[in-house]
Design brief:
The chain folds into 4 domains: 135 residues, no CATH class; 215 residues, no CATH class; 110 residues, no CATH class; 68 residues, no CATH class. Helix 1 packs across helix 4 and helix 11 runs parallel beside helix 13. The longest helix has 23 residues. The chain contains 15 helices and 20 strands. Strand 9 and strand 10 form a beta hairpin. The strands form 5 sheets. It has a 6-stranded antiparallel beta sheet, sandwiched between helices. It is of the alpha+beta class.
């Protein structure tokens, strides 16, 4: 436009074009060498295309791209005519250039040469002969493609700037306005002059899309948080703590709810730390705690604890996050996980009264629990409770690039005990994309442990075996972790059923089971001993331990074991 010469438009890349992305050949592993993808833009910091990988559900920047759809000769001529018509318009009244047009122009400059044979394999879009029709049709198709890609690839904004560029800008602004109103209503801060030598913390916005039990968008949430990573231990804070209930206690509350036939209710405190007086002055001077402060969780728990004790609740001796109260023979039990509450009782009226009592904490009654700690909760008065983590498992698989893996029938195979650890390859501590590192293995095992603790005891043994080598994992350990994930991919719809028929009977009976494999570990000859305790037909506890044949020489023996050994050696 400025030089009077038409730019070369023959290599324009169509937004949303299908392409083939190849992996870096220098990275030697067993991953797939190539996969289909979609062009969604051009790299801003490094040379290459930004492509969406449907299999992994991520957007990456890469130069290893081939088979890109471009304009054919006839389409190029039509675009040239449109360009010349545009010149006449610009001479009179200059029109703004859209971001999409700018990215196409930059893609033309950054595009690498393609092999002639590759172009013949492309599928080109039909363009109407009418030039005016081309303009509207192209704009509509690009807009439709952009909407489709954005709906799939858009994640929660990481910064304020990203939120303002999002399609959901207005909803994020409304969420931020709601958060600021809550801060003002709770009197969290006041504007003061910064004291000389004071250490002020920065703040940032954190955005989160809240999903309901069925995976649909429930609401958009924005939090203004303090950058707690800038706090100095011993100056800005001294003790940190957040109340986290044991998963066994959560299941016990559901069991009690089943026994009493009173559905457990989910309570939430929308702005928990905002109602807590701060124990140190920060600028902008915080009169109360703010999300992000390292001591915010502890301060909130102190306030909740004092309020519950004042209301007549007693703290459990076995789990500090469980409180119980008995009034006129009616028992109410409350489980605490930071600012989420799980409440049940012997009568529905007593449970409803609990939420009415603690008005000073503004606890919101969310009704019967349908989702708690990432678990989907289903309740039937006749059948009891069912807990599953199908959505959490799907999210875990996506995060670790296993969304489309083939499933297996068991979480662990017999070959896991035949590994020669001396010749096994250790995982690297760092690496680029596609390289399996120690951190990736630890992240996968951590996710698997959470699933096993919540709803999937069937993978407990396999996860226990994988977690023993998190300090120095090998490629065999990584394969075991992947096998467990593949097993979950095929069984993600399974649920933990707590029908609780035994809980409805009096008295309750405790039944225990135990089993062991002798010296199954080929490396150190350790044996695995598992125990399962049941209360009626409701599982109450899972125990695991390890013993070695050398125990008979180093530890005291039980009388039956001593008698067996005496028989073996011929001492009668």
């Amino acid at each position: 436009m400025l030089t009077g010469k038409s730019p070369p438009l023959g290599e324009i890349v169509v937004f949303g074009s299908p392409c083939t992305v190849y992996r870096d050949p220098r990275k030697k592993n067993f991953a797939q060498r190539a996969q289909t993808a979609m062009i969604v833009g051009v790299g801003q910091e490094t040379k290459g295309y930004r492509v969406y990988l449907p299999k992994d559900r991520v957007v990456v920047t890469t130069q290893h791209v081939k088979n890109i759809e471009t304009l054919d000769k006839e389409q190029n001529l039509q675009v040239q005519r449109l360009y010349l018509q545009g010149d006449e318009t610009l001479e009179g009244d200059e029109a703004p250039v859209s971001e999409a047009q700018a990215s196409v122009a930059e893609a033309t400059r950054a595009r690498s040469k393609k092999k002639p044979w590759a172009r013949e394999r492309h599928v080109t879009r039909s363009v109407a002969k009418n030039a005016g029709g081309v303009t509207n049709e192209t704009a509509q198709s690009q807009e439709a493609a952009r909407d489709i890609v954005n709906s799939v690839t858009e994640h929660d904004p990481k910064t304020y700037q990203e939120a303002m560029r999002s399609k959901l800008k207005d909803k994020w602004l409304a969420a931020m306005a709601e958060e600021l109103r809550a801060l003002e209503d709770n009197g969290v801060w006041r504007v003061v002059r910064k004291p000389k030598g004071a250490h002020a913390l920065h703040t940032k916005w954190v955005y989160k899309t809240k999903i309901d039990a069925e995976g649909a968008i429930e609401r958009l949430k924005a939090r203004l948080v303090a950058c707690g990573n800038e706090q100095e231990f011993g100056v800005d804070y001294s003790v940190t703590f957040s109340a986290v209930i044991e998963m066994s206690s959560v299941k016990l509350i559901f069991v009690l709810a089943r026994k009493w036939r009173v559905p457990a209710k989910h309570g939430d405190v929308p702005n928990a730390p905002l109602g807590v007086d701060n124990d140190s002055e920060l600028v902008l001077e915080l009169l109360k705690a703010l999300y992000g402060l390292k001591q915010a969780g502890r301060l909130w728990n102190q306030l909740l604890h004092k309020t519950l004790i004042k209301s007549g609740f007693a703290q459990s001796l076995t789990d500090m996050c469980v409180y119980h109260r008995r009034r006129e023979g009616i028992l109410v039990v409350v489980g605490v996980y930071v600012d989420d509450l799980l409440v049940t009782g012997m009568e529905q009226q007593a449970v409803d009264a609990f939420f009415g009592e603690l008005t000073e904490l503004s606890i919101k009654d969310l009704g019967p629990a349908s989702k708690f700690l990432g678990m989907r909760v289903s309740y039937n008065e006749d059948e009891g409770y069912d807990l599953d983590q199908e959505l959490a498992i799907e999210e875990m698989l996506r995060e670790h690039g296993m969304a489309s893996v083939h499933s297996v029938r068991t979480p662990i195979g017999a070959e896991s005990n035949e590994i020669d650890e001396a010749s096994d390859e250790l995982l690297p501590t760092s690496g680029g994309d596609g390289v399996v590192t120690v951190h990736k293995f630890q992240s996968l095992v951590g996710s698997l442990m959470w699933v096993a603790r919540c709803t999937r005891p069937d993978i407990a043994y396999a996860v226990h075996k994988a977690s023993r080598r998190t300090h120095s994992p090998t490629m065999s350990d990584w394969k075991l972790g992947k096998r467990i994930a593949r097993y979950l991919a095929g069984t993600k719809s399974l649920w933990l059923s707590m029908k609780g028929q035994g809980a409805l009977e009096e008295p309750l009976k405790v039944v225990a089971y135990s089993d062991a494999d002798f010296a199954a570990d080929k490396a150190d000859r350790k044996s695995f001993v598992g125990a399962l305790a049941k209360r009626g037909v409701l599982k109450a506890e899972y125990l695991e331990s390890e013993k070695m044949p050398a125990d008979v020489l180093t530890k005291a023996l039980e009388t039956p074991r001593l008698a067996d050994l005496r028989v073996i050696v011929g001492l009668h």
